[in-house]
Amino acid sequence: MILSGKTALVVGVANKNSIAWAIAEALLREGAKVALTYQNERVEGRVRDLAKSVSPELPCFQLDATNEAEIATAMKGVGEAFGGKLDMLVHSIAFAKKEDLEGGVVETTAEGFKLAQEISAYTLISLTRGALPMMQAAGGGSVLSLTYLGAERVIPNYNVMGICKASLEATTRYLAWDLGKQGVRVNAVSAGPIKTLAARGISGFSTVLDTVAGMAPLGRNVTTEEVGNAGMFLLSPWASGITGEVLYVDCGYNIMGM
Ligand code: NAD
Ligand code: 0WE
What we know:
The protein is an alpha/beta fold. It has seven helices and seven strands. It has helices at 19-29, 41-54, 68-81, 110-137, 159-180, 205-215, 224-235, and strands at 7-11, 33-38, 60-62, 88-91, 141-147, 184-191, 246-249. Helix 5 links the parallel strand 5 and strand 6. The chain is globular, with a radius of gyration of 17 Å. Bound molecules: nicotinamide-adenine-dinucleotide and ligand 0WE. Ligand 0WE binds at residues 94-96, 98, 101, 148, 155, 157-158, 161, 193, 198-199, 201-202, 208.
């Protein structure tokens, strides 16, 4: 098992359909010790039940990523659970106000823009900073985030989230430069559309799924398991020569011009 003796913190599990959960399952399968966080009390029960379903002792911590104090408290808990050493960090969170995911980008308010950027991009910096002392203690580490094609192409209605994902991908490259000398790699997986909680309530999502399945070389949509396995690869020593990279896990859709 490639990850035995390694430790991981996975941020972004809401339920069993979450991409973060598929990554956690792949990490566990390869022998890693995994800790989870949950955003708030509303999802706490569900996340703790999921954790218990795979292992009796899987540490869970509350972490609203916009709350610096909660980041510090969660990191302290992770340090206690893992003997002060962390090898892997997964950032799998995003949020924009519903009204900013429809209508015109030109209508985006400063408040909506800032909220989406803070949760969807800035938190890659603050979470990495929080994890860094434990990665230094481990002699290096690996960070992974989740992005989407809307970062570099126009996907109707993705709007301010596309702008945030462009920011997240640039942040991935700058962090990779910053932390490379310390043996910390920073990469992103660009996943194809998947019907998770974050995709519910997005009008026309079924059309997005059908369009991609119809055009992608593999003729179907990607699964959370496939994204989990690719994410696990980038986090693992098999990817020791890869940093600052965005890896497409989208059944090939991104290569198409027509
Ligand atoms: P999901 O709803 O299961 O996960 C989103 C998570 O973000 C939830 O766990 C939620 O609690 C968390 N979150 C939101 N605001 C937060 C905050 N302030 N603090 C802490 N956590 C917060 O949906 P998902 O599809 O698994 O999304 C995970 C990531 O994958 C996101 O970055 C998303 O943009 C990306 N992604 C999703 C798709 C897709 O089609 N589902 C495609 C490509 C990329
Ligand atoms: O990153 C995402 C979606 C993230 C997201 C989802 C919501 C729904 C509920 C962020 N904020 C919110 N806010 C809410 O109130 N994806 C990659 C999934 C997605 O969203 C789309 C897509 C795809 C794919 C929106 C329009 C078109 C395609």
